[in-house]
Design brief:
The protein contains 13 helices and 14 strands. The chain has helices spanning about 15-30, 40-50, 65-75, 90-100, 115-125, 145-155, 205-215, 230-240, 250-260, 265-280, 310-325, 355-365, 380-395; strands spanning about 55-60, 80-85, 100-105, 130-135, 155-160, 170, 175, 180-185, 200, 285-290, 295, 300-305, 330, 365-370. The strands form 3 sheets. Strands 1-9-8-5-4-2-3 form a 7-stranded mixed beta sheet, sandwiched between helices. A 4-stranded antiparallel beta sheet has the order 10-12-14-13. α7 packs across α8 (about 230-240).
Length: about 400
């Protein structure tokens, strides 16, 4: 019985050039972005703005901080209702709570794995919510055109959580550029690995000026190069915007700058591996997952499927058996929190509601993480597919 031997949790090594720059930075001691020396964070902000196709980018200490700041700047305060996906990860409702808001969970389709538009309209009507924090969970997209139409019809402000879709497009336009803000993560398990880190992206001069002050720039805001030219605008915000101390470090910025040029190659490799999984598992009746949409250009950093059984013991056994053979699957239907994986059932800080369609989706939903597989070869993924299919055959008595 074949066992897969590679380590799913081991990130690709940091390049020699980045290690040398980090060593020089450590020797200088200038880890803080406003401590003089090379302005690595400002450079990273400029390069990310170019890559993402936006006017301004602000480097922050995490993707969660980006979400929090986007919500605050969009008018979320104590008690504000914020619509968001019910199939998401804990930092999303956590950011809403951090900003003082109340998460309003929207059903997610058991076939598309994304927001159900009927539920979205119903929840907005019931709560009067004027903010939507749209999570492109695990890289799956809703009908973005329909989301934009909904926001226009209802006057809802759109904030895009792009933690899982950096480098993705809808109709040729980068995700994160449709709403007021795009929020990105460079945490280790993302397209760019800086350990921790994130970016807030926007074309709005006033809002990004406020964000720069909120991030903790003190009187050093003039050092930012990805900012409006009007320094008086920033100075005026300094008097009214509290310092939240959300800064990115120079160490994180060095890592980010080193990885940006290789993103196209990295995305091609991820998508090649994704397509092997898609092709092989798509031929097997044990698995269900949505087809990619023609309007999107995606980045395949993880692959999700539903196993065609509702038996909890069988699903639990499937996760255990695949793990015994070296294939590490996250399971969203588990009754307990496991690693990074939790669901709305584990979040007592979120108002409870009936989410029957989402629960149907999550019950038998598995995730194949691909973030740290760029260096793996095609045969590795053929072997992974064999294990996933063989264990499903055994459990489902085929």
């Amino acid at each position: 019985m074949a066992v897969f031997k590679k380590d799913w949790s081991a990130p690709d090594p940091i390049s020699e050039s980045a290690r040398q720059k980090m060593n020089d930075l450590l020797l200088s001691g200038r880890l803080h972005r406003y401590q003089g020396g090379t302005k690595y964070v400002s450079q990273a902000e400029e390069e990310m703005a170019k890559y993402l196709g936006v006017k301004f980018c602000l480097g922050l200490n995490s993707g969660g901080s980006s979400l929090f700041l986007a919500l605050k700047l969009s008018g979320v305060s104590e008690g504000t209702s914020v619509l968001t996906n019910s199939y998401t990860l804990a930092p999303v409702p956590g950011a809403i709570r951090h900003a003082g808001g109340v998460p309003v969970l929207v059903e997610c389709s058991s076939t598309s794995f994304q927001l159900d538009l009927t539920s979205l309209r119903e929840q907005q009507k019931a709560t009067g919510a004027k903010h939507l924090l749209l999570c492109y969970m695990r890289g799956k997209l809703p009908d973005v055109d329909a989301i934009l139409e909904f926001c226009k019809d209802t006057g809802v402000t759109l904030i895009e959580d792009c933690a899982h879709v950096m480098g993705s497009f809808w109709r040729g336009k980068p995700l994160g550029t449709f709403g007021t803000f795009g929020c990105y993560s460079t945490q280790t398990n993302k397209l760019i690995n800086s350990g921790e880190g994130g970016f807030l992206a926007s074309d709005n001069e006033e809002l990004i000026s406020r964000a720069i002050i909120h991030s903790g720039s003190y009187g050093h805001f003039h050092q930012h190069t990805s900012r409006p030219e009007d320094k008086d605008l920033l100075l005026s915000q300094h008097e009214v915007c509290p310092n939240f101390s959300l800064r990115m470090t120079n160490l994180a910025a060095v890592l980010i700058l080193d990885q940006i040029p290789n993103l196209p190659n990295k995305i091609d490799l991820f998508n090649k591996h994704y397509q092997i999984l898609e092709s092989n598992l798509g031929k097997c009746s044990h698995f269900a997952f949505p087809e990619r949409q023609p309007e999107e250009s995606y980045v395949g950093t993880s692959f999700q499927f539903r196993l065609n059984t509702s038996n909890y013991d069988c699903l639990q056994e499937y996760q255990r058996k695949t793990l015994e053979r070296g294939v590490k699957l996250a399971w969203f239907g588990c009754t307990d929190v496991n690693g990074f994986t939790s669901t709305h059932k584990h979040w007592r800080y979120v108002p409870s509601c009936d989410l029957n369609q989402t629960d149907l989706l999550l019950h038998n939903l598995f995730d194949v993480p691909l973030y740290h597989t760029m260096s793996w070869d095609d045969q590795d993924f053929e072997n992974i597919c064999e294990i996933i299919i063989e264990e499903a055959d055994k459990l489902l008595n085929i």
